[in-house]
Amino acid sequence: MTMAVGVPGLFYMQKIFWAFIGAAIATATIANAINKILCYQRISARKSPDAAKPKSAFFRTHATLAAIIREFSSYSIPLSIKNWHIYLPTAGPVTIIVGYVVLIVVCCFYRLNPKNYLEFEDIGYRSGFIAVCQMPLIILLSSKRNIIGLLTGMGYERLNWLHRWTARCLLFTVIIHLGYWFTEWDKFDYAMIKIKTDKLTQRGITAGAMLGWIVFSSIAPIRKLSYEIFVIQHIISWFGFFVTLYYHIPGENRIWIWLPLGFWAFDRFARAVYMLVANLAALHKNSSGFLSCKATFEPLDDTHTRITIANPPITWQAGQHLFLTCHVLAPFTAHPFTIASLPKDGKIEFVVSAKKGATRKFFKYAKKVWPSLPSVQSSVRGRAVLIDGPYSRIRSMRQFDSIVLIAGSTGATFTVPLMRDVVQQWMGTDSTSHKRTDFLTPAGAVTRHIRFIWVVKKQSTIRWFATQLSSVIRDVEALREQGHDVAVEISIYVTCDETITSGNSHPNGDRTGAHVRVSTSRPESPLDEKKDYTTSIAEVSSSTSATKECCCTRILTDEDAITALCNCASKRQQRDSTSSTSPSLQKSLSSNLVDLDIIILAGRPHIPNIIRKTAELALGEMAVAVCGPPGLVQCTRNAVVGISDDRAVHKGTGAQGIYVHAEVFGYA
Fold first, then answer.
1. Could you tell me if 498 and 549 are in contact, meaning their C-beta atoms sit under 8 angstroms apart?
2. Contact call for residues 601 and 493 (beta carbons, < 8 A)
3. Where is pLDDT greater, at 372 or 483?
4. Are 594 and 513 in contact (CB under 8 A)?
5. Separation between Cα atoms, residue 183 and residue 229, nearest integer Å
6. Which of 307, 501, 320 is nearest to 396 (CA)?
7. Across-strand partners of 84?
8. Average of pLDDT values for 505-512?
9. What pTM was computed for the model?
10. pLDDT at 536
11. CA–CA separation, 392 vs 162, rounded Å?
């Protein structure tokens, strides 16, 4: 339809919408390209002690802008209501969504008067055209093989929240579209007649209702009830929405239906090709049978399973994940798990927490088939599995002067490979993953110092990565003996293990493995105690259930201080003899597990102190990578923001930047 004189046409406003979207993607692409250039320059100049420090005027300006943007976008306000602690959404994503909503509103109402009844029809048409042209963006943001992610350097999982919010914004646009049409019809008591007699209106209402259902069923509490069911109904609902929308919109607008369908089909085709190449045994020399991947399932404790795929047919980088499918145990489900090993290991390894659904079935199967005697472990036969991936993108940790890695429980599957990858580069044993998947990044590492923090509930958890952690310590000691200026500090915080939190047994005991310190900072007065507790809410992973189950929840502000033990035994009854793992057995399990230089502490880490100490010694930009519960992740982000602001990073003080990468537990 034609608009009034001086009012932009409908197709013109669609172009304006995509001009802004294209500009945003182009800006993110340029930022990604600059990061790639920085990485190449730094690692190429790794022999210089300040290789990670910006030198040219352009990169100094870039570092200042990056610091300002990070400080603004990463902070989240913590809220405490009685014993319920939450973080508000971070400013960065909120700003993006607000900007997107403003763009939609401007495109819907530009040069039109929303209060003028005579222009209601024009607004109805305009908002409908703006609604339908959003479809390609929504589908692009949902794709695993993501074109936007490829350009911007972001994995699909880091864009998925934007996919959900753009869909909600689409519903908002549709409500504007429906609202103005119905308001106009209702003025003449014509609304019900249109609904009963006009097929175009009926299709529009049906499409709007289906979109409303898609958005409603995608809300986190509903989505997480059963993620497998959600995915199936989400795809069915999406197809139904597209069909009804196709017959509702005019023919000249159907390009906005075919484009997203094309993007979706390309994503599915690309994923199918990758899966065939990775999983067909005929395409790999060392594989037999039909499928190339066989997985073994090993129970690690009461709630975790180690899944191992020997001789994997693919390569990957530290920090990436795969989708794993085992149709024999959990048919027609695929779950993403972080790869806990490196290509050099010759195996893919996952540590999976048994929740419900497929992960619970994996754990039950592991308990059933895994032999109790090590001598017969070789007889365990692997189950055929399908893999899809690897996925995820992360800036190379090797380009940063110092690194702080923080993990909670199974979050170590993300941080341990990152640490080992850097140490591997120090040793000069370049991973094949960098040759195949990151050809723009040369071998070697700028990094001089790694600080590794792991928060666990029980000492027995340490054995998950005991071999890898001890190997890292030995390799670094060998490098230092050869004169290399590198260092790794590893601290493991135990929060729920009575063998080191009980006042009846000293944690050092007869232990000959790692050093165990039980250090806590006691407030000197009731007022200080209240202040310390309030501060800890904002700085420690308050979301973990350990705060309710464990008594040792105090913050260790100084790892070198040795003070009173957390006396958990006096606060709750000892576990009875029927417990699956007794305290004495836990103590024996943790003995001789890790190297002497790995410190085990009872309590919780003071994240700001750890990051600040590392930042004060960094000669160039440093990185913080965190993986764990939402509370731990966001308190780490807030700590980085606070330290960056206090030290006036790249604002004339000489303090260097702090890059933070966050991975939160859970996929749904």
1. no
2. yes
3. 483
4. yes
5. 37
6. 320
7. 81
8. 37
9. 0.84
10. 40
11. 16
576: tokens are 């009875």
Cα(39)–Cα(45) distance, integer angstroms? 10
- CA-wise closest residue to 634 among 588, 665, 602, 595: 665
Angle between helices 227-248 and 255-279 (to 10 degrees): 150
Phi, psi of 337 (to 5 degrees): -130, 135
Sheet with 294-299: list strands edge to edge.
347-353, 304-310, 294-299, 383-384
Distances (CA, A) of 30 to 27, 35, 111, 144, 479: 5, 9, 33, 22, 38
The predicted-structure confidence for 15-66, as pLDDT tens digits, reads as follows 999 999 999 999 999 999 999 999 999 999 888 888 999 989 999 999 999 9
The candidate with the shortest Cα–Cα distance to 1, out of 106, 128, 113, is 128
Phi then psi for 357, rounded to 5 degrees? 70, -130
Which amino acid, 390?
P
Please provide the size of the chain in residues.
668
* Beta carbons of 472 and 420 less than 8 angstroms apart: yes
What is the rounded distance in angstroms from the CA atom of residue 75 to the CA atom of residue 38?
A: 25
Contacts of 610 (CB under 8 A, 6+ apart): 404, 406, 451, 453
Alpha helices in 370-458 (DSSP H): 412-427, 432-437
Residue 604, phi then psi, degrees to nearest 5:
-125, 145
Q: Is residue 486 within 8 Å of 448, Cβ to Cβ?
A: yes
Which of 373, 449, 395 minimizes the C-alpha distance to 620?
Answer: 449
Token duo for residue 14: 């669609």
For 178-216, give one letter per residue: b (16+ CB within 10 A) or e.
Answer: bebbbebbeeeeebeebeeeeeebbbbbbbbebbeebbe
Specify the pairing of strand 622-628 against strand 402-408.
Answer: parallel
Is-contact 628 353, C-beta < 8 A?
no
Identify the three-state secondary structure at position 17: helix
Q: How far apart are CA 146 and CA 157, in angstroms?
A: 10
Structural domains in the chain? 10-273 (no CATH), 294-391 (2.40.30.10), 397-572+583-664 (3.40.50.80)
Residue 662's beta-bridge partner residues? 626
Burial per residue of 136-149, b for 16 or more beta-carbon CB atoms within 10 angstroms, e otherwise: bbbbbbbbbbbebb
Q: What SS3 state is found at 306?
A: strand
Count of beta carbons in the 10 Å neighbourhood of residue 565: 21
Residue 374, Cβ neighbours under 10 Å: how many?
A: 7
Bridge partner residues of 338 (DSSP): 321
- Name every residue whose Cβ is closer than 8 Å to that of residue 474 and which is 6 or more positions away in sequence: 595
- Nearest of 110, 154, 143, 140 to residue 12 by alpha carbon: 110
pLDDT on residue 272: 92
* pLDDT of amino acid 383: 87
What is d(CA 259, CA 139) in angstroms, rounded to the nearest whole number? Answer: 9
Instruction: Compute, in degrees rounded to 10, the torsion defined by CA atoms 558, 563, 566, 569.
Output: 160
Confirm if 46 and 445 have CB atoms less than 8 A apart: yes
CB 426 within 8 A of CB 28: no
Helices (H), 45-155: 57-73, 91-109, 120-132, 135-142, 147-152
Confidence of residue 259 (pLDDT cuts 50, 70, 90): very high
Mean pLDDT value of segment 370-389: 69
Nearest to 465 by CA among 517, 514, 505: 514
Q: Single out the residue of 375, 488, 378, 386 nearest to residue 427, CA to CA.
A: 488
DSSP label of 664: E
- Nearest CA-CA partner of 324 in 346, 293, 300: 293
Q: Going by DSSP bridges, is the β-strand pair 402-408/449-456 parallel, antiparallel, or unpaired?
A: parallel
Please tell me the number of Cα atoms within 13 Å of 474 on its side-chain side. Answer: 8
